[in-house]
Amino acid sequence: MKQKRELPEMHLRHLEVEEILQVVEQVTSVSREQIYNHRRKPFAVDAKHIFIYLLLKMIRPIAVHHVTKFPQPTIFVATGSVADKYCYDDVFAEKLNQCYSILKEKETELISKMFRESKTFGDLQTIIAPYTNCENLPLPVINSIELI
User: Fold this and answer.
1) Could you give the C-alpha distances from 20 to 40, 60, 116, 125, in angstroms and in order?
2) Residue 85 confidence (pLDDT)
3) Pairs from 53-58 (Cβ < 8 Å, separation ≥ 24)
4) Which of 9, 24, 32, 116 has its CA 20 to 30 A from that of 50?
5) Domain total in the chain
6) Does a structural domain hold residue 52?
């Protein structure tokens, strides 16, 4: 029996859906057509509520929470029954972590660029607003805040 691991939520607050889908396709080799055509329709593609069904050909039938349960942009995937919704196997975990690392790096670069180009306090508020506290901000952003 494969070891089960807890599924992390990934809050990617500034990345566009298109960027996220490109990374998922690249890492998992699952095309967006396969994602869109999954039997549990509709697939939610929205900048505010993101559900990405990863590795559709490799894992058990997927059970997901309804999109409105997650007000922040989230990649949330679960295998098996609703009771197992926080579990996934090692193959899935490895692919998910690859996606997460790439996307987090992209987001950190994007936020740092937004900070460098921000002209007013209002601009900074727009960048920081999606985060509940500074602990969630990437390190370059925290450094930028301290300099202001």
Assistant:
1) 20, 23, 23, 24
2) 39
3) 53/77, 54/24, 54/28, 54/30, 54/92, 54/95, 54/96, 54/99, 55/28, 55/30, 55/91, 55/92, 55/95, 56/30, 57/30, 58/91, 58/92
4) 116
5) 1
6) yes
pLDDT in tens, 56-93: 333 333 334 333 343 333 344 443 333 233 344 455 55
For residue 95, is it within any domain? Answer: yes
Structural domain contains residue 133: no
CB atoms near residue 39 (< 10 Å): 7
Report pTM: 0.49
Q: How far is CA 74 from the centre of its chain?
A: 5
Q: SS3 of 11, please?
A: strand
The DSSP letter of residue 62 is B
Q: Where are the alpha helices (DSSP H) in the chain?
A: 17-28, 32-36, 90-117, 121-128, 139-147
Concatenating the DSSP letter of every residue in 30-42 gives: --HHHHHT-SSPP
Q: Is 19 helix (H, G, I), strand (E, B) or coil?
A: helix
pLDDT at 24: 72
Extract the tokens encoding 146.
Answer: 């301290």
Q: How far apart are CA 72 and CA 87, in angstroms?
A: 21
Question: Does 120 map to a domain?
Answer: no
